[in-house]
Predict the 3D structure of the following.
Amino acid sequence: QNGTKSSALGRFDATAGQVVGLGPIKKEIWGIQPKNLGQRFAFDILLDDRIPFVTLTGQAGTGKTLLALAAGLNKVLDQHRYRRLLVTRPVIPMGKDVGYLPGDKDEKLRPWMQPIYDNLEYLMGCIYKEQMAADMIRHIQDKGLFEAEALTYIRGRSIPQQFIIVDEAQNLTPHEVKTIVSRAGEGTKIVLTGDPNQIDHPYLDFRSNGLCYAIEKFKNNPLAGHVTLTKGQRSELAELAAKLL
């Protein structure tokens, strides 16, 4: 109008059959602000309750897991939209099988789940002082508001009214992804994150893994949203390593 130009961000809405503007987002979500357009689009679908199935792909350092965790904390602890944040990842042993490691279940799984706790501690540290952040993590676990569990232990469960993040989903088979999604109860949101170029499963590749399978099958479905994150937010060295190694 009046010779001025303007622009806006939008994404394709399969239900409406057109591009719609991104929804409003408050300044920070658990201390996190989108640092690029990809992260802005990711937050939009992560925070949209009308989209119960989200897939995020990108190389290490693009913020996939951190964004998903921040959105999950917001939905569970701030908005009370879901009753629990459940984070899981497949166990792909590089040495001894987890069953042969010493300790109880939690001690056995801690090395595989540590990246989740690292991200959670970072987010809590954005809001609370160090000791209070650690206490807050224990508190939400004790109250059943947060659970980090190996994928092996959630199969067979019906999971209603939860915000579920499946990290490293590129190491799942299509059948495993189908099993997880079909277990989602009423009011549950599922987020798959992963990097199809970093597959540890010996029998999967870029095309046959469950993450890429799900992205393709849910393409253009109004119940699903997908974002490929392309810009790393770690150090210049980390981004270079992700590209070259």
Summary: The beta strands are 10-13, 18-21, 53-58, 84-89, 146-150, 162-166, 189-194, 224-229. The mean pLDDT is 86. The two ends are 50 Å apart (CA to CA). The longest strand covers residues 53-58.
